[in-house]
Amino acid sequence: MNIVVGVTGGIAAYKSVQLVRLLIKAGHEVTVVPTEDALRFVGLPTWEAISRNPVTTSVHDDVAKVRHVALGQGADLVVVAPATANTIAKMSAGIADNLLGTTLLATEAPVLIAPAMHAEMWRHPSTQANIATLCSRGVRIIGPAVGELAGGDSGPGRMVEPEDVADAALALLAPRDLEGMRIAISAGGTREPIDPVRYLGNRSSGRQGVALAAEAAVRGAEVTLVAANVAGDVLAEAQHPSIRILQAGTAAELGRVMADAAASADAVVMAAAVADYRPLEVADRKLTKDAGGIASIELVENEDIVAGLVRTRRDGQVVVGFAAETPGAEGDQDELLARARRKQKRKGVDLLVVNEVGWERGFEKGHNAVMMIGSDGDVVSTASGSKREVAAAVLDALRPLWTAIRNEE
Predict the structure, then answer these.
(1) Which of 234, 324, 327, 311 is nearest to 274 (CA)?
(2) Which residues span the membrane (predicted)?
(3) Distance CA 274, CA 51 (A)
């Protein structure tokens, strides 16, 4: 595939050297189109050496080959990383005053951008309006991340890591093998209030569920994503015309919203981490130590959402559950697998995705490792890598289940 990587004038340009390397390593032809300002951060010889292709910033080079439009016409994908506030504004307005701008106007290929700027610039209403405009046109957005910025500042605006951009880019080149499929996906972790200040919760960031939604959408599915307490920077990956985002807070709210979403879905994927218990009573005011109000909390069990979705599923619907499990004593994997098989049988899901978690793995991490258990208890697949790569593997396992049901009908 032919990929054009546009690089704009931000300090994060150095990250795109690794991005280009990853795309070439994946077997793709890459042409780098930097802006003049981008070359102030990373020089032209570096881009030519890493891409193995000639690099120019001018629309006046290779005029006989009409290079200013040929690059866009021949691209299977265009990635802009980093995408500064200035370039995003130009894209929104359709301004083409350099080779990258003409390439973007001339292409009919998917476009992915990785914003990078100071937090104030990212939050500015004009930038947010420009991002909304690009999303409405089908441009895919990844990030920005929250973290340390140039000059010692911190906040939203940091370009996501090149590995994440590469994952998102390669996903856009994937076949649209889920065309016509409607999927309801949950993400995040529920929170059960104790009082107006405190809650019982878990460490789930929602990244795996969001990655599933993003991957399903680029493969052609219509997605309803039910987000339970997922941060905005994580949800940014799910900005796609084929993804509808709904919100939920508690397990009860998540159950209601997922039941509504599942009513018209061909597949349901319960990736959210749901609290098993909730406080029997929720205090109207903050409980204090001096009043003895938090010495003990009586808990009651929450409804098993995925088991309920299995009981009420409509004909032909595939239900996928997730199980976060810790290994047995001294890392006993056999015990973990036995627990997972019992859980699959108890819940009745068509596919149970089991990921091993602990203090240093699983939740709040960029990578994941899972095994998938079918309805007969057999391990049908395993996957590890970025959460986007794991998402692709889960959907690969889900698709034949959906196809088999459709063929039966």
Answers:
(1) 324
(2) none
(3) 45
Alpha helix ranges (H) inside 62-206 = 67-74, 85-93, 99-106, 119-123, 125-136, 162-172
Buried/exposed code over 213-239 (b: 16+ C-beta within 10 A; e: otherwise):
bbbbbbbebbbbbbbbbbeebbbbbbb
Active site residue 53: no
The CA radius of gyration of the chain, in Å to the nearest whole number, is 23
Give 358's DSSP letter. B
At the top level of CATH, the class of 2-172 is alpha beta
Instruction: Describe the strand order of the beta sheet including 111-115 as a list of residue ranges.
Output: 29-34, 2-7, 77-83, 111-115, 140-141
How does pLDDT run across 240-256, given as a tens digit for each residue?
Answer: 889 999 999 999 999 99
The answer to whether the CB of 305 falls within 8 A of the CB of 188 is no
Tell me which residue has tokens 């981490």.
273
**Do 182-408 and 2-172 fall under one CATH topology?**
yes
Rounded to an integer, what distance in angstroms lies between the CA atom of residue 109 and that of residue 243?
20
Domain boundaries, the chain: 2-172, 182-408
Interval 69-111: pLDDT, tens:
888 888 999 999 999 999 999 999 999 999 999 999 999 999 9
Give the span between the Cα atoms of 87 and 386, in whole angstroms: 28
pLDDT at 329: 61
Q: Is 347 annotated as a binding residue?
A: yes
Could you give phi then psi for residue 385, rounded to 5 degrees? 135, -155
Known binding residue 276? Answer is yes
Which of 202, 229, 302, 368 is the catalytic position? 202
Q: Which amino acid is at 289?
A: K
Backbone angles phi, psi at 98, to 5 degrees: -155, 180
How many residues in the chain? 409
Looking at CATH, the fold of the domain delimited by 182-408 is given as Rossmann fold (3.40.50)
Distance CA 95, CA 68 (A): 14
Q: Is 41 annotated as a binding residue?
A: no
Sequence-distant (≥ 6) Cβ neighbours of residue 181 within 8 angstroms: 216, 220, 221, 222, 266, 267, 402
Confidence of residue 320 (pLDDT cuts 50, 70, 90): very high
pTM above 0.90, yes or no: no
